[in-house]
Structure formats: structure tokens, C-alpha cells
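Recap slide: Acyl carrier protein, sequence and predicted structure.
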Amino acid sequence: MITTEVTFDELAALMKQAAGITVDPKELKDSAESPFDVFGLDSLGLLGIVGELENRYGASLPPDSERCRTPREFLNLVNSTLTAGA
């Protein structure tokens, strides 16, 4: 079971790595209810982040992970999945 949670800092780093989008982690956290497209991230970029997290943690995320609309929704789904040991 994984006990660490994916943070806004990590999500911002993944956005840079997987989608080439630079976002300040504090801005991401402060605007966690804003849609991803406000930050310039589309569904393909989010799919890249999902793939990176699956590789990093060796766990499959739900098939609808890339359909999350906001950073908070995405992190809630990812963290609940990872901590459940899925």
C-alpha cells in the first residue's frame, strides 16, 4: 500500500514534465477548483500525467482519470486510488 500522497507540487512538476506546461505549485493549489484548461493542460497532457503516475507508483489509475476537470478532483481521485492500493 502506498502511503504518500501526490501533492500540488508534484502535480505541477508532472505538468512540466509530461505536457511542457509551467505552473507555479502555489497558483495550482490556490486555483485547485479551476478547470485544467485555465492552466493550458488538455486531456492529452493529463493522459501523459496519468501514465507517468502509473509508471512511478506501479498502480493502475481508474480509466476516467484523464477526464478529471480540476486539479483538486484529479488529486483526490489519484490519492484515493493510490492509498487504497489499487
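Residues 43-57 form the longest helix (15 residues).
Residues 12 and 23 are 6 Å apart (CA to CA).
(End of recap.)
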